[in-house]
Amino acid sequence: MAEVIKMPKMSDTMTEGVIAKWHKQVGDKVNSGDLVAEIETDKATMDFESYQEGTLLYIGPKEGEAVAIDAVIAVLGEPGEDYQAALSADSTPAENKEENTVVEEKQESTEPTGEVVTAEDLGVTVVTMPLLSDTMKEGVIAQWNFKVGDTIKSDDAIADVETDKATMEVTAYADGTLLYVGLEAGEAAKVNDIIAIVGPAGTDITPLLNQKTATAPAPKAEEKVETASAANTSSAPVAAANDDSRVKASPLARKIAKEKGVNLNDIKGSADGGRIVKRDVENYVPASTTTATTAPSESKGISLPTVVGEERYTEVNVSQMRKTIARRLGESLFTAPHFYLTVSIDMDNAIAARAQINEVAPVKVSFNDMVIKAVAASLKKHPAVNSSWQGDKIRFNEHTNIGVAMAVEDGLLVPVVRFADGKTLSHISAEVKDFAGKAKAKKLTPADWEGSTFTVSNLGMFGIDEFTSIINSPDGAILSVGAIQQIPVVKNGAVVPGNVMKLTLGCDHRVVDGATGAQFLQTLKSLLEAPIRLLA
Question: CA separation (Å) from 482 to 353, 449, 457, 464?
């Protein structure tokens, strides 16, 4: 009998996975334990082995496609077996119920108005409030340039809209008669709300307006770019003699003129009132191809050459790891009330101690290993810092599992050194090095990154003097480790060369108070400045 294979949950925070690579094809024999696919999760790319045996009858997602947890990705069975029944049986009642609910909602929304009428049915164009800036939520009609009944051309600016950034033109992008204006000058409309309708004269648009939700075509990305570019052109500061911001021109004409480096003052418009449109700019031929420059001795100022460039960018799909980083850190920053405490550590003794330790240690010990060990010892004395907010209770952890933030190609992973207070410096060093190798090879498992009670993030190796980190939820605190700096310090009343490292403790104020965090840093400082105590 055919059996379905579903997308497994491979980490505690995973909501979907991406098929990085299929190792089997339809028709291949699959044994229990065979590697079927590589799956990219929010943490790493992991091998997915089959726990079933049979012939691979069906593969759902292609390589590079994302699939939700528990969704069917493949079917195993006997050669030639009909697997459609297995796929159909996997459709859950909850999904069907959700679909039915959506259908019912759609039916309910259309009942009051009867048959749905669209703008296309009436042969009209709906003009909506466009998104004229990345932060715009609504726009205010500064003025209408036409009134109901006027004839509109596709490149006419029917209104001026005041956004959160500037006052910009809105183009109809349709020929016809202005049949409807949705709001008066000075009134605001949300992005994508209907502000006007253009179509054949005499068209009855009442059925469209009476509907709860009118069907309006979404503005094309190209049109948004044209409008935004036009605004940038019209508002750009230029020399007074070459200012063409007050010349009547369509947004598209302004965009093309900007790209060609043409001043609109030099072009004669062919539209109503001498307005410059697209064809005028495209057909314009400069009187001379030589740019005249004025010598400084003949002018009070200087003439700047026109610089023409091309705006370009590259977009890439967000990886599962980056999605989770964005979601979890966003939740942490805007949920946990963060505050930060910074202390300076005299690292002279730590430098000397590390050199002596590495003469006999089986594994080279780093300063970060010493920080991890000192943090674990300090947490034992200050359990309030080794805590987490649980909503209606606070959890005080008696064990010290230190998460070590590690940068990887597409984000950040935090493997955990468990029971760090009971491990030697050499043990911690070997474990951290092993984690680093696994992280780069994307071979970390859920057991490696789950269960931290506190996190250490070290950017000192990159020359960062000090910084603040977002708490790795559900931890109650995180330590940011800066670089060791050689600076003048005062010792015994004299200024001498010193080695100083800054540590910044980020705290969740719901579980860690200022005094508690300060006392923890005092203990940590005393351990690092007298590292012999770490060996006791």
Answer: 19, 23, 9, 6
